[in-house]
Specification:
Elements (H helix, E strand, L loop, with lengths): L9 H10 L28 H8 L7 H15 L3 H12 L6 H17 L3 H12 L7 H17 L3 H14 L5 H13 L3 H17 L6 H13 L3 H14 L3 H13 L3 H13 L6 H13 L3 H14 L6 H13 L3 H13 L5 H12 L3 H14 L5 H14 L3 H18 L2 H27 L4
Helix pairs in contact: 1-7, 3-4, 3-5, 4-5, 5-6, 6-7, 7-8, 8-9, 9-10, 10-11, 11-12, 12-13, 13-14, 14-15, 15-16, 16-17, 17-18, 18-19, 19-20, 19-21, 20-21, 21-22, 21-23, 22-23
Length: about 450
């Protein structure tokens, strides 16, 4: 199973983490404007009551700290990252910073480290912010926890990611469905597949309550977890939803395969047939799989119809194996008129005489003895027939039916030599019986001819 579906790509993860880097806005008395960088919330909000309690404990930002942060922000805007870091370093060495000022300084440093892909130092900076709790805005603390969860995920420390996400869940009142999915992805990376299911289900339930649509990749994550747990019933349930809500070739083919794995053959055939009718099957192996299943379910007519169409369309190669399969399907469907041309096409591509022998049998069954003899001669000439004695038997029977007794006796004699060489007792007995029968009939005919002659 491809586990990539639960991984966040490096680029996507950077973007997602960046979106929740919270820089708290500030305001001052005395006419100073607050720093208002682009602010984004982690996917959830704390309760209004908790925000009010926290706000009462957060100290105000003073002018000197504000000026330092403004200077660092300007340097960042100009692309002068070394200067910005130097300003923030000097600020960190300044005595008397209150908790809010120090947290804001570390928040800006974390942002810089993150933008430089220096995730270990970004993590260190974010963790420094949390040391000032509860004297920082709750929104900043929540955003920091969520960012740490994402950064640890990027660093593949999934246990730490889960730790910070759970701390975040403890504080946030209205987490978003996406946050639960993120938690589920972290559990998936730890192979704790049972732990994946509850947060995914919570995300789905919340989305439905808000009249939203459950995302396709959430179903895929849930399916992947059940797949790893080998809970095939649940996997099938999910793929049935996927083919209904997000129809695609992959889902139809997967569903058919799972039905087959669970020995639900009728559902397997119905599903792969539906996929074909919707135009999803466009590979030779898929068509051959479908036609094989149809024959197993005693629907050779439809197997032949589909195989014939796809050979003509060029999807299925017109080689010996496929043409022979087409001929056999028509034969199973008791449509000899269709089977014979298919056998001829297959025989033309064969290196041995096996298919010519089958044609000889078909022609014999239709009492077309001349064509049967021709096919038998080609089979003998090509060679490679599993039981060559049988070919002589068919040829001799046709000669007998045409009244060519001497030729039939000769053919059965040749067949006996071949059957003895092949050590086939069954063919030896059949050829012997037929030769004896023809010789007896030949003598009887001669006696009748003499009896009817002139006195």
């Amino acid at each position: 199973m491809n586990t990539v579906l639960a991984l966040i790509s490096r680029f996507a993860t950077r973007w997602l983490a960046l979106a929740v880097l919270v820089a708290a806005g500030t305001s001052f008395g005395g006419g100073f404007a607050g720093i208002e960088p682009a602010r984004a919330q982690a996917p959830g909000e704390a309760s209004e009551e908790a925000e009010q309690r926290r706000t009462q404990r957060v100290p105000a930002m003073r002018e000197q700290a504000f000026n330092r942060l403004s200077e660092a922000q300007e340097a960042m805007d100009e692309g002068d990252i070394p200067k910005a870091l130097d300003v923030l370093r000097r600020m960190s060495e300044q005595r008397g910073l209150n908790a809010y000022e120090a947290a804001s300084m570390w928040n800006m440093r974390a942002y810089i480290y993150f933008s430089q892909d220096d995730y270990p130092r970004a993590i260190e900076a974010y963790e420094r912010i949390l040391t000032f709790s509860p004297e920082v805005p709750l929104a900043l603390e929540l955003g920091t926890m969520y960012a740490l969860g994402q950064l640890y995920f990027v660093q593949e420390d999934y246990r730490k990611a889960i730790e910070y996400l759970n701390r975040w869940f403890d504080l946030v009142e209205t987490p978003s469905p996406q946050a639960y999915i993120f938690l589920a992805q972290a559990y998936y990376q730890l192979n704790e597949f049972r732990e994946v299911i509850p947060p995914v289900q919570q995300a789905m339930a919340m989305t439905r309550e808000r009249d939203g649509e459950v995302r396709e990749n959430w179903w895929l994550l849930k399916r992947a977890a059940y797949y790893e747990m080998e809970d095939w019933g649940k996997v099938i349930d999910i793929i049935e939803i996927l083919v209904r809500d997000f129809p695609s070739k992959d889902y139809w083919v997967q569903l058919s395969g799972l039905y087959g794995q669970q020995e639900q053959q009728k559902k397997q055939v119905a599903t792969i047939w539906t996929a074909y009718m919707q135009g999803y099957l466009d590979q030779e192996r898929e068509i051959l799989n479908l036609t094989g299943l149809l024959q197993q379910e005693e629907a050779p007519y439809w197997a032949a119809r589909i195989l014939e169409r796809e050979i003509e369309n060029g999807v299925v190669e017109a080689n010996r194996r496929n043409l022979q399969g087409l001929a056999q399907a028509w034969q199973m469907a008791q449509n000899v008129e269709k089977a014979i041309p298919a056998y001829h096409r297959a025989a033309e591509r064969a290196d041995d005489g096996e298919l010519h022998y089958r044609l000889a049998q078909l022609y014999l069954d239709r009492d077309d003895c001349e064509r049967s003899i021709q096919a038998a001669d080609r089979a003998i000439s090509r060679g490679g027939v599993d039981r060559e004695g049988q070919v002589y038997l068919v040829k001799g029977m046709c000669q007998y039916n045409l009244g060519r007794f001497e030729a039939a006796v000769s053919t059965f004699g040749e067949g006996l030599r071949v059957a003895r060489r092949e050590r086939s007792e069954q063919d030896i007995n059949a050829l012997t019986q037929w030769r004896t029968h023809v010789e007896r009939e030949q003598r009887r005919q001669e006696q009748l001819a003499r009896a009817d002659g002139p006195a």
